[in-house]
Amino acid sequence: MKDQHIAPSHAHHFASETSSALGHIHEIQGFTYPVNGTGGDGHRHRFQGITRAADGHFHRFMGMTGPAIIRSGGKTHVHAIYFEVDEEPFEHRQGFYGTRTDIERHTHRFAGLTGLPIGFEPPLW
After folding, report:
1. Which is deepest, 8, 78, 106, 111, by most CB within 10 Å?
2. Widest pairwise Cα distance in the chain
3. Domain boundaries in the chain?
4. How far is CA 70 from each of CA 22, 74, 78, 94, 125, rounded to the nearest angstrom?
5. Using one digit for the tens of pLDDT, what is the confidence trace for 84-94?
6. Three-state DSSP class for residue 27
7. How many of the other CB atoms lie within 10 Å of CB of 56?
8. Measuring CA to CA, which residue among 62, 67, 75, 73 is closest to residue 113?
9. For residue 86, what are the CA distances in angstroms to 59, 61, 100, 108, 119?
10. Which residues of the chain have pLDDT under 50?
């Protein structure tokens, strides 16, 4: 039987747009990696991904959320999330990706909050 004192494993969704650079923005969307935690224990999540393509390229990003921020009277939580995309612009090429050397290296930033926790394991699992 599972130890009932271990905080539940969960992840968080995040989605928004990046800051503008070189006249364009990128949409971002993803999920944090799951960890065990509650709103009051200060846990954090890692995340990584790629932006949606814009202006003929996309960027990689990775980071760590801020600690849990308690919401709704202590019953749930979110995390602050901030990152700066990798400065190297990429494009898809025949099932792989490669650097766009004709586009100036640049960065975009994103700051916001994750969604509420998702993916809790069933009780007594």
Report:
1. 78
2. 58
3. 9-118
4. 37, 5, 7, 45, 25
5. 999 999 998 88
6. strand
7. 11
8. 67
9. 6, 6, 13, 8, 29
10. 1
